[in-house]
Amino acid sequence: MTERVYLPEGFFLGAAASAWQTEGWNGKKEGQDSFMDAWYKGHRDAWYEGYGPAIATNFMERYEEDFSYMKEIGLNCYRTSLNWSRFLTDYEEAVVDEEYASYYSSMIDSCIAHGVEPMICLEHYEVPQALMERYGGWNCRHVVDLFVKYAQRAFERFGSRVKYWFAFNEPVVVQTRVYLDGLRWPFHQDSRVWMQWNYHKALATAAVMEAYKKSGFKGPDCKFGTIINVETAYARTDSPEDMEAADKYDLFYNRIFLDPAVKGAYEEGFFDLLSSHGILMEYTDSDLKVIKDNTVDWLGINLYHPNRVKGRMTAIREGAPFHPCYYYEEFDMPGKRMNPFRGWEIYPRIIYDFALRMRDQYGNKEWFVAENGMGVQDEGRYRDETGMIQDHYRIDFFKQHLYWAIKGIQEGSNLKGYMNWAFTDNVSPMNAFKNRYGLVEIDLEHNRDRRMKRSAYFFKELIASRSFSYEKDEEYR
Ligand code: BG6
Fold first, then answer.
1. To which H or E segment does residue 208 belong?
2. Predicted TM-score of the model (pTM)
3. Which one from 23, 231, 345, 371 is the annotated catalytic residue?
4. Residue 371 annotated among the catalytic residues of the structure
5. How far is residue 472's CA from residue 1's CA, in Å, rounded to a whole number?
6. Which of 55, 183, 202, 231 has the most CB atoms around it within 10 Å of its CB?
7. Segment holding 309, helix H or strand E
């Protein structure tokens, strides 16, 4: 059965990206590497076909072109980051790099001039490598202060034009891949460092919120938030063991950021639990008060796929470094629908389930889907005779996720909008241009030229008509 689904009044549609994944290194000065740049230089073999942030999509030179596509599609907003490592030349004193700031300022002007609202994230993994070397990055409390100084400069320069600011994109990711799981350069495992990073980033979110409130730039229509990748956890069965596994998974990867950001505190017993595993971070009561007093206005949530877990069947070796999998094992559910290219399960209900959770467990705080999308390899094979990539699989993916988002709103969730990852194809960590996510193709064989995919026209039509046709597969065959 086909039904027409209508977007609710005021529901916005946008697309996201980040500075390091699009800009390229034009004009980058000695000492301005971000952690991502350093990882790319330090372990380039891990980056798919050697592509990385060096040229990326060459956005610095081609943003006008990208914004004109956004205008043609009618996008309401575009989220990217300000690159901390490049915006400053001195991270201690927060000295602005005028060259980069001037590019950034023109980029924001162009975005607005094309009728697209800019949304700016202050860190999308771009912690300066100099601070990694000097302080171990977010392991050090002083870096929180440096981040606040950097944010203040950003508000001074762009605060009169940018209304929507975010502290982090996916604050749990870097330390989890690096220090918890040891998957990424520079290959140093330390679960306590992992927890210290988590805590300092939660603190930095609140401290920057506090600075923003004091900055004089936070007008009545301005909002501050953070963008969290909720790894929606589903228990294998309703057995107490499986339910406990999903609960702990959620605690260590999701609530660890959701709770301080929205509730201003970690849940009761959390610090004791950390102590029992020997990973309690250093903290002060005055910093916990900053977290308490400066909760965010709203949240951006990145939702891609569900995570299925079960209670542990095997024992953990005594003395092994702590890992949240102390409480769970991954569960490979038979029959799950897959995106075979990315290896991620497709389960559009994640948006609905999270929407109800925000309604019921987080005081119905405002939120939006800050990233959702489908990464597909070798998309050139779907090109038609006119040269356009016919990505109907992505259109189906959008429709299914939007359908469940709207259902969540109908049931009372304060869900404000939906953003696709990403506007153009871009460089992902390690996956570089492997998983293509864009509405607009980046043609690596032809000078990174841009071309709208079929999904870009779907978005255009969706925005113009504020509705889409949805095929409900309910037939028993
Ligand atoms: C998100 C990140 O988690 O996933 C992005 O915010 C990233 O930075 C995106 O590019 C897609 O990643 P991947 O590895 O599937 O290409």
1. helix 191-215
2. 0.97
3. 371
4. yes
5. 5
6. 202
7. strand 307-310
